[in-house]
Design a protein that fits this description.
alpha/beta, five-stranded mixed sheet, 384 residues, 2 domains, Immunoglobulin-like, 12 helices, single chain
Length: 384
């Protein structure tokens, strides 16, 4: 992920600006569950901060000069319930979530850095929440059960591979550790949007050096990556430092696995997770910014796509019943992107990013963009 996303979610901290409610809400004469969000350099204005339970649509308009993001968080300000990233200046994007009554927190992040501009948000009780037919309910229950099993399995594999990796790293078996590094991270990347929903863990496990906040201690995968693929004039970590970083990564992976086993999901979280994983591809993997020293970005790329496709396939029967044309488009574009990835597969993984031609990068980027647009409509289709 773009690690600046996670920095905002460590703790509920003082705001950068004021997130306010417009005195004349435009929801009065329209859909009471549609909320207009205006993000500027130092503001985050919502048309209303109280809506009835059900399918809520946040229409996020960026009127600032920097790329911005918008989040709906749990009442603790940590857990991400929905997010829309990379909203460019003068652009508008939607976040669709199905929210029960309760207390929440909203956050805009102009510049995609810092704690974000936050405010309390309330969802009230409602008898008008979307009804689910008996047939739909069976599809929903199957999707939730299957996705939970998938995430738990990937987390378990991440735990096992991470232990193997840190053992090699601590033992000084660097060549073997370098070979295992991208294979272990595959399991993280497949469930990255789930992992990053834990705002305290993600920055400790997956922060990149370029996105560190002032004074933030750098730990996790990419700290070790730099030590295994050292740049010029780099001072290698001592054995004791290696042991500390390895122990820290393992401890946090165990914590993540314990939390994942207890998670439950909603269909909008699955659909938004599919979209979110593809955004991870677009903002980090296809640009080569994620694995800046190892250049193993295509392993991450393919794993994000795996996770996005599995999430989509879980809700695909629901989409086929409600919007068959969208289902067909998504299936075809996932297949087209997968075909390009398969062309870069090698006997021991994938082509290293710095060995890709500009034409190959452009092809991959175009395929990601072609999939992004219909995937942005997935959540609304599932909840319609």
């Amino acid at each position: 992920m773009r690690k600046t996303t996670a920095m905002a979610l460590i703790l509920a901290v003082p705001l950068l600006g004021a997130c306010t409610e417009n005195a004349s809400s435009d929801t009065e004469d329209g859909d009471p569950r549609t909320v207009s969000v205006t993000s500027t350099e130092d503001g985050c204005e919502l048309s209303t901060t109280e809506v009835p339970a059900g399918t809520i649509t946040f229409e996020v308009a960026n009127q600032g000069s920097q790329v911005t993001e918008f989040y709906l968080l749990g009442d603790d300000g940590l857990r991400i319930l929905g997010e829309v990233e990379n909203v460019g200046p003068q652009l508008t994007r939607e976040l669709v979530v199905n929210a029960a009554d309760g207390s929440y927190v909203t956050a805009c992040k102009p510049g995609m850095k810092g704690e974000g501009i936050r405010a309390d948000f309330t969802v009230t009780e409602s008898d008008e929440a979307p009804a689910v037919s008996a047939n739909d309910q069976q599809l929903v229950e199957a999707a939730l059960a299957n996705y939970a099993a998938y995430v738990q399995d990937q987390s378990d594999q991440l735990l096992t591979k991470t232990q193997q990796f840190v053992d090699l790293y601590q033992s000084g078996k660097d060549a073997e550790a370098r070979a295992l590094y991208p294979e272990a991270r595959v399991h993280w990347e497949r469930i990255e949007t789930v992992a990053e929903s834990f705002g305290d863990l993600d920055p400790m496990m997956d922060a990149r050096e370029a996105d560190l906040e002032p004074g933030q201690k750098w730990t996790g995968w990419h700290r070790i990556e730099k030590d295994l693929w050292p740049p010029a004039d780099y001072t290698a970590l001592t054995a004791a430092e290696r042991a500390d970083f390895a122990s820290d990564l393992m401890k946090n992976t165990e914590t993540l696995d314990g939390r994942v086993q207890e998670l439950t999901y909603t269909v909008d979280q699955i659909a938004n997770g599919s979209r979110g994983l593809l955004e991870e591809v677009a903002t980090g993997k296809v640009t080569g910014e994620e694995e800046i020293w190892s250049h193993t970005d295509l392993w991450d790329f393919a794993a994000n796509v795996d996770g996005a496709r599995v999430a989509y396939e879980g809700v695909q029967p629901i989409v086929e019943a409600k919007d068959p044309e969208l289902a067909t488009t998504l299936t075809e574009r996932f297949a087209a992107l997968q075909e390009l990835l398969e062309a870069q597969r090698t006997s021991d993984g994938f082509t290293f990013y710095d060995d890709l031609t500009k034409s190959e990068v452009r092809e991959l980027s175009n395929a990601v963009n072609a999939l992004s647009e219909p995937l942005s409509r997935l959540t609304a289709a599932v909840l319609s």
